[in-house]
Amino acid sequence: MWWSWLVVLYFVIPGRTVQGVVLRNGQRLDYPINGLSSFLVTLCTAGLVYGKFGFVPFLWVADHFFQLAAASYMFSTAQALFVYLRSFRRPSHGAQPVMLALAGNSGNPVYDFFIGRELNPRIGALDLKYFNELRPGIMGWVVLNVSFAIKQYHTLGYVSNSMWLAVVPQIGYCIDTLLFESKVLTTMDITTDGFGWMLSFGDLTWVPVMYSLQARYLAFHPVHHSTVATALIAVMGVASFLVFRLSNSEKNAFRTNPNGPSVSHLRFIKTESGSKLLVSGWWGLARHINYTGDWMFGLAQCLATGFDTPMTYFFSAYFLVLLLHRNYRDECKCREKYKKDWDRYCEIVPCMFIPYVI
Ligand code: NDP
């Protein structure tokens, strides 16, 4: 039902249409930019639901977390099976052949099902990978977080400062993701990876279930921080978010228009591929300082849960592995694309994550 609701909004909410990157066959696909407005409509609907039923539906969500997680797991697996089987269809006469992901066409059914065989599976105008990437999971994460905060309020009569520290930044992160929705079109997930079980499960199940871990823990184990600890965690959250957001925006602005007013003062090197690489500003400090900001931001929310259990720090451990693996894949991609120019860039910007350290 949640998935269907967002599909309906995907089609009915007005928004501009943008084109994705040029595909191997020279084609560019259209994508609607209405994720944030879909979120706002969902928020207003949640407000109406609250007006009629009070906290009851939100408490139901918090109390049925495991059932919802199981349903999401089954749905994401069924969806992956559907796109895998459908990737073998024969195109109708005159239609473009099915475009497969380069890495998802090994011939090993288990691997191809896992990694994703078809690059951009679509049902009519519904681009399944793009839709799943930012909508049901990201918005589901917000719904779970709000439900857990309401659960705590219902139990304690107030929301603890630790809950605010965990939930508010995460909701802000989701809104930021939806606000910059079009940026997802240039990420590896959309341009390179097929849509298989990994992304279907990751988007629909893993993100909302695992990323809401801190709020879920705090709903049942409230933690109360001193004013100093609250301030320190809040400052860490804001500072790391700024590193994440400003570095990503700087590169996006540079890639959109290297002569734009916000980036024209930055130094760069020209490469034989035709692309330029920034060597000053955020990207002159470290080659993936955006990952550092993102990771520290997540750590701040883990710290909000205190030190009574290592369980809530699972997110930081997992996210570290994800970002290290992503960094490795991106370095391989850039080395392949820029060849000796990448070595030149690495000499100028030797650190990967923390300036002067690593
Ligand atoms: P990045 O935004 O880091 O982009 C990497 C690409 O940027 C490179 O392939 C290269 O592409 C270009 N680039 C690298 N160095 C330079 C430079 N010096 N100057 C100009 N361009 C350069 O990749 P991601 O998509 O992995 O990450 C985006 C954000 O999303 C990150 O902040 C990450 O933390 C976050 N993220 C969050 C996840 C989550 O689960 N919360 C999951 C994954 C990512 P080219 O030169 O070809 O343009």
Q: Count helical runs.
A: 16
Order of helices and strands: HEEHHHHEEHHHHHHHEEHHHH
Provide the list of bound ligands, each named once: NADPH dihydro-nicotinamide-adenine-dinucleotide phosphate
Compute the average pLDDT: 95
| Count of DSSP strands | 6
Low-confidence stretches: none
Give a written overview of the molecule.
This is Erg24, C-14 sterol reductase. Keywords: Oxidoreductase. Its EC number is 1.3.1.70. With 358 residues, the chain is mainly alpha-helical. The chain contains 16 helices and 6 strands. It has helices at residues 2-12, 35-53, 56-63, 65-86, 109-115, 128-134, 136-156, 161-179, 188-191, 197-211, 213-220, 227-256, 282-285, 289-303, 314-338, 340-348, and strands at residues 16-19, 30-33, 122-123, 126-127, 268-270, 276-278. The strands form 3 sheets. A two-stranded antiparallel sheet has the order 1-2. The protein has a two-stranded antiparallel ribbon with strand order 3-4. Helix 7 runs antiparallel to helix 8 (161-179), helix 7 runs parallel beside helix 11 (213-220) and helix 8 (161-179) runs antiparallel to helix 14. It is globular, with a radius of gyration of 22 Å. The mean pLDDT is 95. NADPH dihydro-nicotinamide-adenine-dinucleotide phosphate binds next to helix 12, strand 6, helix 14 and helix 15.
